Amino acid sequence: MIIRILLLTVLLYLVFLLVRSFAASIARRKQVMTRRPASVQSEDLVQDPVCRRYVPEGEAIKASIDGRTLHFCSRECLEKFRAGGSPGSAEGAKLRKENAGRG
Fold this sequence. Notes:
The chain has 103 residues and is α+β, with helices and mostly antiparallel strands. It contains four helices and four strands. It has a two-stranded antiparallel sheet. Strands 3-4 form a two-stranded antiparallel sheet. The radius of gyration is 29 Å and the shape is rod-shaped. The termini are far apart.
């Protein structure tokens, strides 16, 4: 009788350890899924003046034009901007109109 009680106690303890381990792994997985990388948490978005797409500032291509720093999503947009003029000009408006249907 005492041996059965001891075996039952050991079995219950093992089940307890298994359940606790499973619950802890679920909690860790949930915490990892809700956490964002540090680079995403604090980075600002900037708008490309050609296609109006928003890109993270760290990934944007920067160019100093007319004393202003402009941010572009790609080299293609930078070249289009340089070829077409400033965002306020007629060429810039034309580029925005052409790219309005993109992305």
